[in-house]
Design goal:
The chain has 119 residues and is an alpha+beta fold. 31% of the residues lie in helices and 29% in strands. It is built from two helices and six strands; from the N terminus they run αββββββα. 29% of the residues are buried.
């Protein structure tokens, strides 16, 4: 499934992408505070690296020229574009939602059920 061309301005994209990554970081901080799981995060600009206790990683990386967020996990690589009308980031191939996919891959890599809900 191919989504339509981005309809966001660069400023809107940067704001929404920042909010998405900040939401992931906030969720991980909550899990750490509640002793659910200790996922280390490292953020450099638009790149957020999640390091799991077993040594595996998930990378979320903003792609400003394309107005996308890319997710790299053991299960593969995925590209998401913001569907402004629906208020969610959707996969450019199959239409799946970013936080749903991130939850799936993080749960698989962590060995425990993890749910990211987004901003």
């Amino acid at each position: 499934m191919t989504t339509t061309a981005p309809t966001l301005t660069d400023a809107q994209y940067h704001e929404l992408a920042h909010l998405a990554l900040a939401s992931v970081e906030a969720q991980i901080d909550q899990w750490l505070d509640r002793d659910v799981i200790d996922i280390d995060t490292h953020r450099t600009g638009g790149l957020l690296e999640l390091s799991f206790p077993n040594g595996s990683k998930i990378i979320l990386n903003t792609q400003p020229p394309l107005h996308e967020i890319w997710l790299a996990a053991r299960g593969g690589g995925f590209h998401y574009r913001c569907d402004v009308a629906a208020g969610r980031w959707v996969d450019t191939r199959d239409g799946s939602e970013l936080f749903q996919s991130l939850s799936h891959h993080a749960s698989a890599q962590a060995g425990v059920a993890l749910l990211f809900t987004g901003a």
